[in-house]
């Protein structure tokens, strides 16, 4: 998901003049502070006893969108398979906004109940081992309206500048249950999905995967048939409706094949499509340098213009940044395009099993937002961006507060910005070349699969002799930050130590004779310098000193 806007970004969306060089507090902090997200639904958490017994392998989705009534009609077949013995009842998530009219299995009616946003289906017999059971569910109703998409999601029923319908769907934090019957948990990811969306002519539907065909229906309607053959998380299954034109550009993969980069853009904005597509191709090339080839080359990299800011829907990223580019030294880039594109690696190709590890999706992506600037512009721009992040860290709860966490319990600024700072620090501790080798190999080796913080740490540990566990414990499982004490002990002699915890960190210290690498711990290290040393001059560590200085800055 796109990060909460910084105040500078908010202003720039109004005046069309993006700037990068600002250290700001986050916009609307209270909305995003832990425990204060006003979400009626959340995703994840502990699996119920029934949901532990099965998973979903395939969705066959048919949805009719009725823009004038702001309703949808769904006819969805969910293919489930057993994970345990004696599975007889299936519990799916589907919010009570919808009325379920029937549930069938191979044409036979099944008994079911639908209450408290749960659809419980009685199979009538125990599922056989390795059996895949198709459950066809028909339902209709008024979807929830997004109050502040994408952070407070639902359907967005909007109009373009010509008065045409423009319909978006966002639901990462709420879960796909706001429009589909699903097993709403990070561990549930279908192997493939068919998506058929019926809309009035001449509206266009952009969705995941490849467009198979467009069929004519009665009463001036037509259906767009999409199919993705890649594993896909529930919240990434998506569609957008609008009066779009299709613009495209080729992307040459590392194997020498051409993959289409496709942009579904509003008719009035087609003139802007070429520049954005050119940026997209360059960013795909840069990201494969960091993380290996784009994972979905057999389909497309897709963009669709949306009436909300953005979201990383697999192979069809939502784009709502209004072509407002950041310019540095005469060169432009689009921060939103970049962020959602990176999620195709971190979040889509690699998915966490528990929302407690959400920092892997958002923290690594936000770190990469800055890392891109290092190579595209300069290391100085990278450091400026990392310093900008400091003012957006609340540090009110650990990045990993427990297990079986819901999206509502975990979502706050820190999964973006403190997560990014942890990666920044890890790069310093390991050394940039070794770190980049490790993270690239991790991304390649884990694509299409699940991961966790434990697996991440274990993988990276193979690349360094430095024990990484204390660093992970400090920045991911704790809210304490190291307090650095620098004291003048005598003429041209200084001591430096960490006063509030038992940890040793390799730090750069700038003295009159140059920059030294010093292992700073609770035991004082003595330095000789004709001027006062500067500890961690480039800002590799998030420290209590830095955090307090930032709070003082905000207070002024």
Record the SSE blueprint.
Elements: H1 7-15, H2 29-32, E1 54-66, E2 71-82, E3 89-93, E4 98-105, E5 108-109, E6 111-115, E7 118-122, E8 133-141, E9 154-159, E10 165-170, E11 189-190, E12 192-200, E13 204-207, E14 210-216, E15 221-228, E16 232-233, E17 239-242, E18 244-252, E19 258-266, H3 273-291, E20 301-305, E21 310-311, E22 317-319, E23 326-328, E24 331-333, H4 335-342, E25 350-352, H5 358-376, H6 379-390, H7 407-410, H8 414-430, H9 432-445, E26 449-451, H10 453-461, H11 469-476, E27 484-490, E28 493-498, E29 505-511, E30 514-520, E31 525-528, E32 534-535, H12 544-555
Parallel strand pairs: 1-12, 19-20, 20-22, 25-26
Antiparallel strand pairs: 1-2, 2-8, 3-7, 4-5, 4-8, 6-7, 9-10, 11-16, 12-15, 13-17, 14-15, 18-19, 21-22, 23-24, 27-28, 28-31, 29-30, 29-32
Helix pairs in contact: 3-4, 4-5, 5-6, 5-8, 8-9, 8-11
Task: Describe this structure as you would to a colleague.
There is one protein chain. This protein is an alpha+beta fold. The protein folds into 3 domains: 7-42 and 318-476, Neutral Protease, domain 2 (Orthogonal Bundle); 51-264, tricorn interacting facor f3 domain (Immunoglobulin-like, Sandwich), CATH 2.60.40.1730; 484-540. An 8-stranded mixed β-sheet has the order 5-4-8-2-1-12-15-14, with no helix packed on it. Helix 5 crosses helix 8 (414-430). The protein is globular. The relative contact order is 0.10.
């Amino acid at each position: 998901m796109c990060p909460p806007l910084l105040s500078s970004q908010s202003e720039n969306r109004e005046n069309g003049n993006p700037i990068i060089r600002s250290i700001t507090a986050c916009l609307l902090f209270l909305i995003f502070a832990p425990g204060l997200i006003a979400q009626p639904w959340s995703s994840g958490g502990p699996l119920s006893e029934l949901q532990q017994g099965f998973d979903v392998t395939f969705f066959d989705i048919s949805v009719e969108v009725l823009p004038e009534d702001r309703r949808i009609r769904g006819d969805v077949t969910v293919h489930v398979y057993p994970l345990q013995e004696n599975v007889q009842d299936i519990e799916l998530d589907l919010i009570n906004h919808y009325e379920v009219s029937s549930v069938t299995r191979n044409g036979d009616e099944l008994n079911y109940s639908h209450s408290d946003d749960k659809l419980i289906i009685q199979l009538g017999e125990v599922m056989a081992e390795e059996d895949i059971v198709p459950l066809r569910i028909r339902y209709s109703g008024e979807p929830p309206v997004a109050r502040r998409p994408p952070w407070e999601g639902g359907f967005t029923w909007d109009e373009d500048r010509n008065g045409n319908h423009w319909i978006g769907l966002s639901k990462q934090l709420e879960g796909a249950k706001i429009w589909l019957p699903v097993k709403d948990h990070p561990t549930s990811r279908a192997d493939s999905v068919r998506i058929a969306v019926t809309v009035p002519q001449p509206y266009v539907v952009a969705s995941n995967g490849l467009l198979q065909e467009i069929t004519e229906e009665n009463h001036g309607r037509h259906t767009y048939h999409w199919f993705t053959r890649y594993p896909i998380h529930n919240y990434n299954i998506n569609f957008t409706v609008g009066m779009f034109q299709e613009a495209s550009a080729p992307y040459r993969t590392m194997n020498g094949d051409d993959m289409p980069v496709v942009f579904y853009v509003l008719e009035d904005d087609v003139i802007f499509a070429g520049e954005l597509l050119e940026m997209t191709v360059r960013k795909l090339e840069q990201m494969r340098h960091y993380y290996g080839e784009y994972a979905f080359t057999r389909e497309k990299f897709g963009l669709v213009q949306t009436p909300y800011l953005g979201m990383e829907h697999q192979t069809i990223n939502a784009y709502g940044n209004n072509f407002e580019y950041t310019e540095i030294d005469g060169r432009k880039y689009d921060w939103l395009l970049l962020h959602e594109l990176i999620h195709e690696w971190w979040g889509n190709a690699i998915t966490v099993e528990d929302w407690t590890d959400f920092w892997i999706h958002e923290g690594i992506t936000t770190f990469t937002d800055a890392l891109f600037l290092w190579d595209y512009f300069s290391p100085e721009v990278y450091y400026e961006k990392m310093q900008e992040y400091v003012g957006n860290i609340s540090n009110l709860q650990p990045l990993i507060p427990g297990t079986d966490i819901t999206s509502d319990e975990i979502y706050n600024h820190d999964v973006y910005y403190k997560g990014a700072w942890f990666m920044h620090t890890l790069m310093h501790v390991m050394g940039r070349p070794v770190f980049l080798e490790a993270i690239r190999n991790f991304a390649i080796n884990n694509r299409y699969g699940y991961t966790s913080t434990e697996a991440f740490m274990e993988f990276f540990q193979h690349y360094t002799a430095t024990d990484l566990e204390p660093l992970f414990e400090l920045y991911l499982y704790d809210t304490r930050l190291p307090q650095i004490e620098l004291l003048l002990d005598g003429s041209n002699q200084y001591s430096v130590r960490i006063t509030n915890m038992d940890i040793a960190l390799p730090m750069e210290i700038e003295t009159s004779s140059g920059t030294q690498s010093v292992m700073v711990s609770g035991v004082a290290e003595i330095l000789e310098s004709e001027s006062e040393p500067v500890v961690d001059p480039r800002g590799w560590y998030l420290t209590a000193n830095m955090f307090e200085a930032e709070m003082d800055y905000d207070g002024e």
